[in-house]
Each structure stands twice: as structure tokens, then as C-alpha cells.
Amino acid sequence: MFDLVRIIFTPGNFTPHSQHFADRWEAMWLIVVGHALSVLAYTLIPITILYVVRKRKDLVYNWMFLLFGAFIVLCGLTHALHIMIFWYPAYYFEAIIEVITLVVSFATFLMFLYIIPRVVKLTSPQQLADVNVALAREVERRQQTRASLERSVRDIDSAGKEILGKIDELKKMNALMAGRESKLAVLREEIMELKQKLMKD
Where in the chain are the domains? Predict the structure, then answer.
């Protein structure tokens, strides 16, 4: 086990990559600076992704962002190892990281293939905005309909009260007419009795 660790993390018989640039130091440093800036970029990108995932708990497929972030971290690590082997040629360790990066990159690709059809079906912000506008219009239309119905109910209620008032008046008039008819009937009887008395006399 110790021998395996030693083989992986020690240069062994390999020579530092910088020896190939003995008379071209400017080229070597251009490569080193390029790798260093790549490491910086590959470090900042996953930090940004992690910040977004932590802030937006409602992200769909947030695990995909984390997997992509892991892939980017490994890419940054490979660039860091490219710098390391210029002076410390632990090529076996670099090879292991390259293989891990390969596995994670293919896993990321396969996961992308898995979620692409589902992402395509997700509602876009514009579609959500259109739905919200349509819902707002529907709510406004229903509110107007409700207000119109309430006015109609109030009108019907007012008309019903007016009709009930007229019915009460008609009842009173009918009662009054009935009383007058009763009095007229009594008067007719009295007149008939008087006529009969006069005729007898």
C-alpha cells in the first residue's frame, strides 16, 4: 500500500517538464501563467454556482449545477497539476486526476442528456408572465361579473320591496273597498225596507 502511494505521489524516474524549456523560459512562463489563470477561473465559476444554488432553493435540477461545479473544479485541478509537473513530475497522480475528470465529465454529459427533455418542457419566464397576465385579466373579468351580479341583486331586492309595498297598498285598498261595499249593502237593504214600508202605507 505504501509503495502504491509512493508511486502515485512521487516523481519516480520522470523529469520535470521545465527541463524541456531550458532555452525557452518565456514560452514556459506563458504556459504556466495561462494554466494559473485557468485555475483561477475554474475556481471562481463553481464558487459562483454554489452561491446561486444556496440562494435559490427553488432551482429545478439543482444537483445538476453541483455536478457541473464538481466537473469544473476537477478541470481547474488538472490545470494546477500541469503547473506542478513543470517542477514536480508526479505524472501518475496527474493521470489519476485526469481519469477522475474524465469519469465526472462523462457523468455530467449523461446527466445533461437525461434532463434536456425535461428542461425543454419547463415553463419559461415569458410563458409564466403570459399566464399571470391571463389570470389577472380573468380575475378582473370575474370581479366585474360579480359586481354586475351584486348590482342586479340589489336592483331585484329594491324592486321586490317596491312590489311588496304596492301589494300592501292594494290589500289596504281592497279592505277599504270591502268595508264600503258592506256599508253599501246595508244601505241598499235599508232603502229596500223603506220602499216596502212606503208602498204599504
Answer: 2-122
Distance CA 179, CA 185 (A): 10
How far is it, in rounded angstroms, from Cα 5 to Cα 8? 5
- Asked whether the beta carbons of 65 and 59 are under 8 A apart, the reply is yes
Place of cell 517538464: 17
**Separate counts of helices (H) and strands (E) for the chain:** 5, 0
Identify the H or E element spanning 117: helix 91-121
pTM of the model: 0.58
48-81 pLDDT, tens digit per residue, is 988 888 888 777 777 888 888 889 999 999 999 9
Burial label for 112, CB within 10 Å (0-12, 13-18, 19+), is: middle
Grid coordinates of 31: 504556459
